[in-house]
Amino acid sequence: MKAICLLSGGLDSATCLALARRNGFTCHALSFDYGQRHCIELECAGRVAKSLGAAEHRVVRFDLRQFGGSALTSEVAVPKGRSAEEMSGEIPVTYVPARNTIFLSFALAWAETIEASDIFIGVNALDYSGYPDCRPEYIAAFEGMANLATKAAVEGQTHITVHTPLIKLSKAEIVKLAAELGLDFALTHSCYDPGPGGRACGACDSCLLRKKGFEEAGLVDPAMA
């Protein structure tokens, strides 16, 4: 069985890749250089793909900075030191317009080309900040569209399934699952606004959620040490 695994280099996508591989899929990892603030996550994605035995790892390049609209693709400041209540209060400026739709569309194209029926994406609806493209309803809608929009599905050769194994897990549960799967946490990177050398800032939403997850799981995060 072949699967396309979206891989950002972060904890969640790396866990998804490890889980897909454990479940018997031949994994084709797909990352994106889309004009984000830093490239450290792509370096991490390459190391994770190699460590977890991906059959192939491709990086697609395009530039969402042409549109901006996000702290990750423009000069808008990344929020720091926010409480859990503040994070869940509204969709944050780190939301990138239509990002997961674009990513999944590339994954769908590659899946059809290599005759794969399965796509894995590490979206999470619990510990994140209410991103609209991380919700179960969104994933279900995209999967429905995928089976209407591709030649292979329309002709009955396949049925596209978008797997979201982490969508209802807390960050602590994701950390525990990753540990069970043998993921090397030191290879992953989650920070929205890393400093020189790619060092995590420790204060953005993503860093704080990751820290909370490791603390609640009772484990030490080597990537944040």
Keywords:
8 helices; alpha/beta; 225 residues; 5 strands; five-stranded parallel β-sheet
Structural class: alpha/beta
CATH homologous superfamily title: HUPs
Largest sheet, spatial ordering of strands: 3-2-1-4-5
Question: Given this structure, which CATH class is correct?
Answer: Alpha Beta
Give the second-level CATH assignment, the architecture.
3-Layer(aba) Sandwich
Q: How many beta-strand segments?
A: 5
Unreliable runs: none
* Rounded mean pLDDT score: 93
Under CATH, the topology can be stated as Rossmann fold
Total number of distinct structural domains: 1
The helicity comes to: 25-40%
What does this structure look like?
It is globular and about 50 Å long. The model has no long low-confidence stretch (mean pLDDT 93). It has helices at 11-22, 40-51, 84-87, 99-113, 136-149, 151-154, 171-180, 205-217, and strands at 2-6, 26-33, 56-61, 118-120, 161-163. It has a single domain (2-217), classed as HUPs (Rossmann fold, 3-Layer(aba) Sandwich), CATH 3.40.50.620. With 225 residues, the chain is of the alpha/beta class. The longest helix is centred in the middle third of the chain and has 15 residues, at 99-113. Strands 3-2-1-4-5 form a five-stranded parallel β-sheet, with helices on both faces.
